[in-house]
Design a protein that fits this description.
The protein is α/β, with parallel strands linked by helices. About 35% of the residues lie in helices and about 20% in strands. The chain has two domains: about 5-120 and about 265-290, Leucine Dehydrogenase, chain A, domain 1 (Rossmann fold, 3-Layer(aba) Sandwich); about 125-260, NAD(P)-binding Rossmann-like Domain (Rossmann fold), CATH 3.40.50. It has ten helices and 13 strands. The longest helix has 16 residues, at about 260-275.
């Protein structure tokens, strides 16, 4: 199905019950359900947010197409999309917002009038997080680790907020090349380049952003050798489960300024809530809910 651009103003769900969810892999510790359901209650909405975790759905799990059809069948108003489906979801959609179309990545889908409308709130989420948490940070040259669905959003956000040059590294060179080409088409030549040699790129960079899954509870580790880090670097990680990733811990040990994945997680959820309900949520309240998370797994399953 061909996707076309649509307006991005609120997709009102009125005051009827709101059933939404998150499709992803290894997401049982996600804080997103708590943020959405708590804000829904505060707004007087019957609001249910379910995890559709493919790690909990057998082997092999249902296909993405099957999950989307199930969401429609069970009466979902929409759903969020996370790793590894932010780009795989594209051919299953009828329409894309201008931002989602530019990025080629979707993390929020509204089901409306029999149509599937894709949005991207990740870019705004990272931009707001960086604006409030990394004010004044040098960004003449920034190394981006990861060129997948989240990496694309981070890349666009960084260039929009004034990064002079983005050095893009991904274990999949084809994917990194594709992102550099997309950025060049959007922002012009000289703003993005492939970073094949990570050590050399780190030496050139003012800051480093991890947009890979490395560091997640499901994929522990660090995306680059910690010995490359210097106190003059700032380091951001979009992973938020756990908030204290090995990358951030090691970066702080050498004196780097750091930014966790909390801000991006909260701000993308704020914008997604508005798409699902047509109601502007209280961002500070959602942030407080995120911070109060007790670590218990949210409900996971197949949408029943």
């Amino acid at each position: 199905m061909a996707a076309k651009a649509v307006r991005t103003d609120g997709d009102a769900a009125g005051r009827r019950a709101v059933l939404v969810g998150l499709i992803g892999q290894g997401i049982r510790l996600s804080r997103t359900p708590l943020m959405h359901e708590s804000e829904g209650r505060a707004q007087g909405l019957p609001y249910i947010y379910r995890l559709l975790d493919t790690d909990c759905m057998g082997d092999p799990p249902p296909s993405l197409d099957e999950l989307v059809r199930s969401a429609e069948r069970f009466g979902f108003c929409g759903f969020n999309v996370t790793f590894p489906y932010k780009q795989e979801i594209l051919p299953l959609l009828d329409e894309l917002s201008p931002t989602a179309r530019d990025l080629g990545s979707v993390n929020t889908v509204v089901l409306r009038d029999g149509r599937r409308v894709g949005h991207n709130t990740d870019m705004w989420g990272f931009r707001e997080s960086f604006r409030t948490g990394m004010s004044g940070a040098a960004r003449d040259s920034v190394l981006l680790l990861g060129a997948g669905g989240a990496g694309v959003a981070v890349a666009f956000a960084l260039l929009e907020i004034g990064a002079g040059r983005l050095l893009v590294h991904d274990v999949d060179k084809v994917r990194a090349d594709a992102l550099v080409a997309r950025l060049t088409a959007r922002f012009g030549g000289g703003r993005a380049e492939l970073a094949g040699d990570v050590a050399r790129a780190v030496r050139r960079a003012d800051g480093i952003v991890n947009a890979t899954p490395v560091g997640m509870s499901k994929s522990p580790g660090i995306p680059l050798p910690a010995t490359l880090l210097r106190a003059t670097h700032w380091v951001a990680d979009i992973v938020y489960v756990p908030l204290e990733t090995e990358l951030l811990s090691r970066a702080r040990e050498v004196g780097c300024r750091t930014l966790s994945g909390e801000g991006m997680a909260v701000h993308q959820a704020v914008r997604a809530f508005e798409h699902f309900t047509g109601i502007a949520p209280d961002a500070d309240r959602m942030k407080a809910t995120f911070a109060a998370f007790d670590g218990r797994p949210a409900h996971a399953g197949g949408g029943s």
